[in-house]
Specification:
Number of helices: 4
Strand content: 15-25%
Order of helices and strands: HHHHEEEEE
Radius of gyration: 24 Å
Strand order of the largest sheet: 1-2-3-5-4
Helix content: 40-55%
């Protein structure tokens, strides 16, 4: 029976972890749960006598983005917790329940700690990517794949690190080779307007 419980604890969070990669940011409440859990973890660490002020969110990352990472790290913890308990109880059927739980906790922490930092770094990289796109506003470039009204095309911009190609949309159709200016950023797509060669 104990193996069945651990197997369930391993499979259910593992399933939700996979789903979170595909649909995670569709559901706002996932980020809110993660933010709340992150706040609890920071408070718990600050309560320790030898620890001062704790901020586990990387610089430049929104709390909600880090919340998604924390939620996923908690799912990794639960999955590893279940896997550790299942393996311990299956390998050593006479092992005391207390030791099985201890093995589960260690396995959960082995999964949680690196995943927390990995998801934190991914959130930071995503924030840096959004910042880089936002800096493109006002830059001019050339259309490399024609932009049809309502359908994306592609532009090429000269940046300080070289040529950069980016998916672009425009209100009007713009043909290949035309000069454009980036006017806004929506997600990973830039909005452009055609400019004359003298602008």
């Amino acid at each position: 029976m104990l193996q069945g419980i651990y197997l369930t604890v391993m499979l259910v969070p593992g399933f939700f972890l996979l789903i979170s990669f595909f649909l995670g940011e569709v559901f706002d409440w996932i980020g809110e749960i993660g933010e709340g859990a992150l706040g609890l973890l920071e408070s718990a660490l600050e309560a320790l006598p030898f620890v001062g002020n704790v901020d586990l969110t990387p610089e430049g990352v929104e709390g909600e983005k880090m919340g998604f990472g924390m939620f996923r790290a908690l799912l990794v913890f639960a999955t590893f917790f279940g896997a550790g308990g299942y393996l311990a109880s299956a390998t050593f059927p006479d092992l005391h329940v207390g030791w099985t739980v201890a093995v589960s906790l260690v396995a959960g922490l082995i999964g949680f700690i690196p995943s927390f930092f990995i998801f934190g770094q991914l959130a930071k990289m995503e924030a840096n990517s959004a910042l880089a796109l936002a800096r493109m506003v006002g830059m001019t470039g050339t259309v490399t794949v024609s932009i049809e009204s309502g359908h994306p095309g592609q532009i090429e911009l000269a940046t300080s690190v070289g040529l950069f190609r980016q998916t672009a949309r425009a209100a009007d159709s713009i043909s290949r080779g035309a000069r454009v200016e980036v006017v806004s950023v929506e997600g990973s797509v830039v909005s452009v307007r055609q400019v004359s060669a003298t602008e």
